[in-house]
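Handout, page 2. Input:
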Amino acid sequence: MTHPTKLYFDKVSNEGRHGQTSNGEKILFNLKLISEEWFQKYTDTLVQQNNATIFLPTGRFISVITASFDVNEKSMMTFDLMNNEKGAKYFAEQSEGNDELFMNAFRQIKYKEDYNKFILVEGDVPND
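Output:
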């Protein structure tokens, strides 16, 4: 049995079902653990456009990652919406015109093999 991969946040709530951070180091660390491919797409988009937002299936979670060089803002929010279409629709409506992108990520959640791949923890990323 493999141990779940820890994703690091400033705050974890709702019994480990919601994580939030505005720390750039944590965001990039987490994104790299979730998917090297998405990490590359996100950083490329950020460099080209000075801002980027992605909606990323993360095991049983959905991660919303945004950054803007122009206003020096960044955030990562991760939600456990497993089998909660009503909750997904609510958060999709809050995503300012990106509701379809959010719901596409929700539909891609892997229900079996990746269900317990990640856990959300509060704290600093480990030093390698």
